[in-house]
Amino acid sequence: MKRFVTYLYLYDGRIKGNNAGFIKVEINGEKSAFLVQIKNLGKYSGKGKVYLVYEAEESIEAGELTVKNGEAREIYNVDTENVKDSGKTFLQVLGVKIELENADEKFLASCWTDNTEAVIGKPLKVQAELSNKRNPVSTPKPEPGCQKEVHSQNVDDSQDKIRRIDISELRTLPAKNWYIVNNSFLTHGYANYKHLVIKTDTDGRQYLGVPGVSEPQERMMAGIFGFTEFEPAAPANAADVDSGVFGYWFCPL
Question: Is the pTM of this model over 0.85?
C-alpha cells in the first residue's frame, strides 16, 4: 500500500495562488482511491470536473464534485491498472486538475511530481468571477524579528536557539534525516517563506522547523508529516496561537 498527501492550489490562468485544500491518495493493490478536500474558495459555489493528468497534458475525467460556499469533499475510486477503462495505470498520474464552472480562468491543481506544466495545462476560458475573500492557509509573511538566529519565545530565552537555514542545507544533516527533503509539507512551507529553521534545545537536541500558521487545516497537514509541535515566532497567548499566528512546526531530528 502507498499513501501520500499533496496540496491543492488555486490557479488564475497560469499564476499560482492560494492553498485551497489537499488531496489524499491511497494506492492499494487492484483498487486505489483519492480524496479531494477543498477549502478557502470564499463564497464560490458551483460544479467542478476532476481530471487525472498524465504526460503531454493528456487527462482522464475521474468524476464531478459540488463546491458549496468555498468547500467540497469527495472520494474517487479507480482501478489501479486500468483507470476508467483507459488502459492507463493510476501510478502514471502526474497530478489532479479541477475545472470549475463560471470561474473566469481559475482552476485548482495538485502536482504529484515535478512536472507542474503538464498538470496546469491550458487555462479555462469561462465567464463570471470566483470570490476568494478568506485568508489563505499559509500566506502570512514571517514576522519582523525572525532573524538569522533568534531565541525561542516559548522557553527560556537564554537557552533554546533557532537558526534559519536554506533547504539545500538539509543535505548536511545525518543521512537518517535525508528523507525529510521529499516531505511535501516541508517543501510547501519553504516555497511560501523561502527558509526553514533548526532549533537546538538546552540538552543539545535538534528539531527541524517549517514556517507556517496555526490554522486547523495546516495543523492537520503538519501532523500527517510528523511536524507535531508549533511555536509562534513572537510572544503569543494560547488564544492567539489557536487563531492563526505565524510560527514554526517542529519535528525532532
Answer: no
